[in-house]
Design goal:
alpha/beta, about 55% helix, Resolv_N, SSR_resolvase
Length: about 200
């Protein structure tokens, strides 16, 4: 079976372009989620991975959709190759392990070389963004114009935001897990944990 996997990091980002490209590729089953790519403990990814078997193919638009940590990427890639699961990175045709079935050792060599380069690039880009964010915040603080990100869901929220906030509070008080609350409300885990901390502090 050909599996497609689409991912963005934040809930306000759009998956449509990735999904259309995976459909056009011919993916028979497509999984998508809005989750950080820092590791592979993402719930939708893990669900998809548990269903993959010998001879299956995983298709992603680009390497950063697969993951954003070079060592994590290499470990996961090797694990899949060891299970005879092929991987296709659409925007990097050389990273299509199906091409090297008859060339013993060549596929692994190509994968190793390209992955080393690309995973390093992904990791460096992630670090660059974090550094730029920190520097931007520091400059804003020095100028006295940084107030932090405005909270959307809180006790003083209004309208739909208040309804969502109250629902999160209700679910937390009934003992619902953060993962289940995230699935029901579509809020990020950080937001839910922040609300949980605020409740516990009161």
């Amino acid at each position: 079976m050909i599996f497609g996997y689409a991912r963005v990091s934040f809930t306000d980002q759009n998956l449509d372009r990735q999904l259309k490209e995976l459909e056009a590729f011919g993916c028979e089953k497509i999984y998508s989620e809005k989750q950080s790519g820092k590791d592979f403990s993402r719930p939708v990814y893990r669900e998809m991975r548990s269903k993959m078997r010998f001879g299956d193919v995983l298709v992603v638009h680009d390497l950063s959709r697969f993951g954003r940590n070079k060592q994590e990427i290499r470990n996961e890639w090797k694990s899949m190759i060891d299970e005879d699961i092929d991987i296709v990175v659409m925007n990097m045709p050389i990273l299509d392990t199906r091409k090297y079935k008859e060339l013993e050792g060549v596929g692994q060599l190509v994968s190793d070389l390209v992955l080393t380069l690309l995973s390093w690039m992904v990791d460096e880009e992630r670090n660059r963004i974090k550094t730029a964010q920190r520097e931007g915040i520091q400059i804003a603080r020095e100028k006295g114009i940084y107030t932090g990100k405005k909270k959307k869901y809180h006790t003083g929220a209004e309208g739909q935001d208040k309804i969502v906030y109250d629902e999160v509070v209700r679910l937390l008080k009934t003992g619902e897990t953060v993962i289940n609350i995230r699935r029901k409300t579509k809020l990020s885990r950080n937001t839910i944990y922040r609300i949980k901390r605020e409740i516990n502090d009161n």
